[in-house]
Amino acid sequence: MAPTLRDGDVVLALPGATVRPGELALVRWASRPAQLSVKRAALAFDDGWFAVGDAPEASTDSRTLGPAEALGPVRWRLWPRPGRLHAR
C-alpha cells in the first residue's frame, strides 16, 4: 500500500463498520481466506468490493484475485507516524 502505508506500519481497523468507496479497508479474498490485507475499497458489488493497492504495478489485488470481502475500514495509523488515513 505504499506510499500510504509501509511494511511494519501498525493500523487500526474497525471490524463491522461501514466501508466507503475510496477508504482503506481490511479485506480478505475467497481464494486466500487465511490472508488479511489492507487495500483501497474502490467499488462495491453485490458479491464484495473491487479493492486495489495504491501502487498498481506492485499490488496483488482484485484485478488478480476478484472481489474482496471488506471486513472494516482502516482509518488510523498508530505507528510509526500516527494519524488519520484519508479516503481518496
From TrEMBL:
GO terms for molecular function: serine-type endopeptidase activity. SUPFAM superfamilies: LexA/Signal peptidase (SSF51306). GO terms for biological process: signal peptide processing. It comes from the Bacteria. This is Peptidase S24-like protein.
